[in-house]
Amino acid sequence: MNDEPAVTRIEDRIRRLRDERRAVILAHNYQRPEVQDIADITGDSLELAREASRTDAEVIVLCGVHFMAETAAILNPGRKVVIPDRHAGCPMACMVSPKGLA
Fold first, then answer.
1. What separation, in Å, do the N-terminal and C-terminal C-alpha atoms of the chain show?
2. Residue 20: other Cβ atoms inside 10 A
3. Mapping DSSP to helix (H, G, I), strand (E, B) and coil, where does residue 100 land?
4. 0.85 exceeded by the pTM?
5. How far apart are CA 83 and CA 77, in angstroms?
6. pLDDT band at 39 (very low <50, low <70, confident <90, very high)
7. Sign of the CA dihedral 60, 49, 65, 96?
8. DSSP tag of 71
9. pLDDT band at 65 (very low <50, low <70, confident <90, very high)
10. pLDDT higher than 70, residue 18
11. 55 neighbors 69 (Cβ within 8 angstroms)
12. What would the DSSP string read from start to end of 35-62?
């Protein structure tokens, strides 16, 4: 039996995958502390996308909502952007319609 805490094993696995895949992990300010602790960069949505562009990462893991990942993809063409929860959404963003923007 392994005496190492499960959380430590998960964190180690995440870091190993990050390094193997040449990824950077971004976490929005509102993420839980344990998500922020494993992140390479923590901040607000636009700043996260900007910071990602300053790295040499091939993969951007954005721990936030889908529109943040879309912004990261726009500011980082040619890089793969993934979001851990593809259903993560923002209630305020869902209130906006194309007609409402016109």
1. 61
2. 8
3. helix
4. no
5. 16
6. very high
7. negative
8. H
9. confident
10. yes
11. no
12. HHHH-SEEE-HHHHHHHHHTS--SEEEE
